[in-house]
Amino acid sequence: MRKKYDFTKGRRGAVLPSKGKTRITIMLDDDILEHFRTRAEAEGTGYQTMINAALREAATRTKGKVAVEKPLTAAALRKILREELHAA
User: Rounded mean pLDDT of 71-87?
Assistant: First the structure.
C-alpha cells in the first residue's frame, strides 16, 4: 500500500448512484419494522425491498380511487339490487 493517498478529488456518497431510487429517512413503528424484518429473513430478501413492494401495491390499488370508500347506504343498495334484478 502507498504511504499517502490523494483524496483531493474524492467525493463522499455512494460509489454507484441508484437510478430511480431516492434515499430518505422515515420513522416506522417498531412492530411494523420487526414484521418486515422477520418476513424478509424468512423469504431471503431485504426488508426495505419488501416495504417498497407493500407501498407500491397500496399506491397502485388506490390509483384512480378515493382511498376512503363511502359506506353503502340503503338507497344505494336498493338501486344496485333493482339494476341487477332487471338485468337478470
Answer: 84
